[in-house]
Amino acid sequence: MGQIRKVKVSTGIEWVEVPEAGVFMLCGCPPDSVKHLMKRGLIVPTERAGWSFETGPNVILLSDVILQNGSFTNMAEFPVLQMLYRQGTLIPNHPNNTGAKPMLVGAQDQIDAQMEYIYRGNYGLVSEEELIKGGRSCRSQRYDAYEVALCFWRHSSSQCFA
């Protein structure tokens, strides 16, 4: 087997790569981990087959602990979104869309929590029942996205929902 490269990126962030095996692992993902990877040159712009995109991790190793020194240790939403969109792994006809999905590695409860966190971050409330529990009345079947966005922006549901 070829070289294994390990880089200390920042507090709580390590990078392990095994290019021969196609593994580029972000170990730990506290807030701003994508920014730190960019600063260290581990995420860089590149181009292939006429597409401009970024390099970066394809595996995230989650911490077993939720908090460390008062900070969240597993904030995988932005690293996963970077993999899906900025690396192109989810974009149709993109050269990086090989069908391989980003991997989350760690304790099952941490993986489940991150999957829920990423899902909610992307889709928000997804059913009429969730909207009602969130304080939205169903005066019509059509939900005004602009009104909902303003409501969340103001953080005052009493002013926003009828």
Task: Give the SSE string.
Answer: EEEHEEEEEHEHHHH
Tally of DSSP helical segments:
6
Number of strands: 9
User: Over the alpha carbons, how many angstroms does the gyration radius reach?
Assistant: 19 Å
Percent in strands: 15-25%
Lateral strand order in the biggest sheet: 1-2-3-6-9
Mean pLDDT: 84
**Terminus-to-terminus distance:** 63 Å
Unreliable residue runs: 145-162
**Estimated helix fraction:** 25-40%
Task: Describe the largest sheet.
Answer: 5 strands, mixed
Structural class by SSE content: alpha/beta
Rough shape? globular
Labels describing this entry:
162 residues; alpha/beta; five-stranded mixed β-sheet; two-stranded antiparallel sheet; 6 helices; 9 strands; 33% helix
Topology diagram in text:
Blueprint: E1 5-10, E2 13-18, E3 23-27, H1 33-39, E4 45-48, E5 51-54, E6 59-61, E7 67-68, E8 71-72, H2 77-86, E9 103-105, H3 108-123, H4 128-133, H5 145-154, H6 157-160
Parallel strand pairs: 3-6, 6-9
Antiparallel strand pairs: 1-2, 2-3, 4-5, 7-8
